[in-house]
Input
Amino acid sequence: MMTENLKQSIKRSSSILNYLILVFCGIVLIACNSNNKQVKVIKKQHSVLEKPFKFWVWSSANAESSDQDFDEEFKQYSMHGIDAVLVNTEADANLLARLVPFAKKYDLEIHGWMFTINRPNDQIAQQNPDWYAVSRDGKSCYDQPPYVGYYKWLCPTRKESRNHILSLVEGLAKIDGVTSVHLDYIRYSDIFLPIGLLPKYNLEQNHELPEFDFCYCDVCLTEFSEIHHKNPKNFTNPAIDMEWKNFRLNKVKAIVDDAYEIAHANNKDLTAAVFPYPEMADHMVRQRWDKWNVDAVLPMIYHNFYNEEIDWIGYATKQGFEDLKGKKTALHTGVFVPSMSAKELHTAIQLAKDNGASGVSFFDGNAITPEQWKVISNFHK
Ligand SMILES: [Zn+2]
Output
């Protein structure tokens, strides 16, 4: 309990502090001549005066874009109160390095977002057909990917495919000015698709189907049987064998934990885009992110993919937040902006904040409408 006097005294100190910060920002504002610097100071006023609650966007960079295009895009983010940009350069470290000065200019964090175990258009992987994951019915993602053509999942157990993935992590981690390497598709292929997406593929998934169950390559089967003295190929119902499930959860964790060491050795953080909350991630894609070494997770709490209502964003955020208690991993809620009105977006941000998130990430930066930008930039006011 807090006494009335103490409350008053804290209130007074905090008013004085706010006043001093305002004066300081005012001085800086006067001292700055260029528009760019004013953008920077305006953003800082928000983050200093308000309880820190971070805004991120996911964005894909095209190497063909001009410097002016990148400048405009990053300026737009900064002007609307975005703090961090997660940029997909398809693990191209040179393109990421090219973008760092634009992030610096507008006082934005920049994170190197990469496709991790799913590696479409990977020229090096394509030269090694044996690196790809194999389904229970014997099909390789190399030439017979599940669901969609860009599902080019690698085997997470093979030394060569793991080392390849980790070398890409290292390439991004070495870029000066980058805040984190951001792992996406850090999981197995979906054993269950989000329920809202099933009609699109004309699918029913009432149990684990062999064509979506990975990885049954020789290396995985041999390593598993050496430890557990049983062969998953002989299981009547592989879904109920806990060692087989856990073997695969641990394979994903092992890549994350190695990536964490690499990122930190290069003075970078490790972040990851993950499924909505740990039990759901485990069930759908064999991803148990509450057990990983990772600095921040950004669960993609895309309610419409799961035919859920907007309040589910609060529910899923809380689930993950509670599971991370006592750990050093921060949680920032990912939301899918195209499915939301401006009003719903405001509700979503508030729900994330009220349920323990340290921020919200918007997918994606280029899809945000003018009305939604208003909500984002006014949220801290
Ligand atoms: Zn394998």
User: Anything to note?
Assistant: The CA atoms of residues 300 and 334 lie 4 Å apart.
